[in-house]
Amino acid sequence: MKKLLLGCACVLLVASVAPVLAHHSPAAFDRTKEVKLVGTVKEFRWQNPHTWIEVIVPDEKGKEVVWGVELTSPTYLIRAGWKSNIIKPGDKVTVVVNPVRSGEPSGIFRSLTLADGRVLTERPARLGTPDSK
Amino acid sequence: MVTSTVRRLALAFMAAACAGVGVAAQAPTQPQTATPQTPVSALAPSNLAKARPKAPFDLTGNWFIDNSPGIQGWLFGPASIPKLKPEAQKHRDAYLQAIKEGKVYRDDIGQCWPAGVPIIMTRVWPIAMIQLPTAIYMISEFMNSLRVVYLDGRKHTDPDIVVRTFNGESVGHWEGDTLVVETKNFTADPHHWIDQGVPASDELRIIERIKMINNGNALEITMTLTDPKNWDGEWTGTRRWNRVNDIDVEEVECLPDLNEHLQSTSSKVHVR
User: Could you tell me if residue B247 is inside a domain?
Assistant: First the structure.
């Protein structure tokens, strides 16, 4: 059953979050909260500076709400195992996000679970450390 | 009589205006002004071929800021913020209030305004640098912003004709093993920031002292900022950039429909 899990998914994150490449301030997102979105992919756009996913998620009253999920750029997603065709409209997915502070249906990506159980995350935007040469 | 003369002149003028070409011949002689000498392009073969001392190092490569010290280690963060002028302090206070309320203050980059210098030099976007004898071409992946550091001995452009920009105009020279870059002629556009809540003005001036360290695999860039419209004295910070050989800088555009799909950029959390 598709369900938007809110309260039980709100977890205080203790670990610091590595910055992702963004063209806007990350301060809009509440990094202390996670929202688990169980729904259907409406659109997936593989592009710079942000890849994004729109997910249709029924709210508690059954009304369909489109959540916008922002990810880093493909450069870093590729390094975390992503491909441009890894999801498509109609796919059933579970996405975990840090939501915007205003309560609007929007968040920054934390993880994606595909229908076959595979879990994808982002690679932190940290390049140029000695081991990357 | 006078009226008919005026009418004839007016008709003659209109006819000349319609003819276009005849206007210049009929127009009164304009005062002659000296044509400013056009500088030789940094890419002109004659400029590239000039004899110059060998550069102490070559910045050509892809670079990524060392963000291992944490966010305040690479942003122009509040830790060392100078005493701001009253108008700038208003922005800073509004920014701090926004943070307190869980909001975002004047995030103009998120609305596709150019980040400009110094922000492109303090963010986790890679920069491709190509060094020639006459100039260093920097392309930040941050909206593919172009920054050119001229090394061909030119001076900054006359303020009367310069086109002011978000990246400013950069002119560099070598002092021993250090590249010293002076950047000024910044825009007066109010969307240009040093960082969130700290405005930049057209009097911003930045001196960068760039050293190549770690056997050519890292840059140490010490930036000293002055902007008498916005703060007293100098504001200095040092950032490191590491050479990265496993990425290329790609095309990154702030497309008109980008933000339609990034709801956070239009969220109520923003203070405009």
Answer: yes
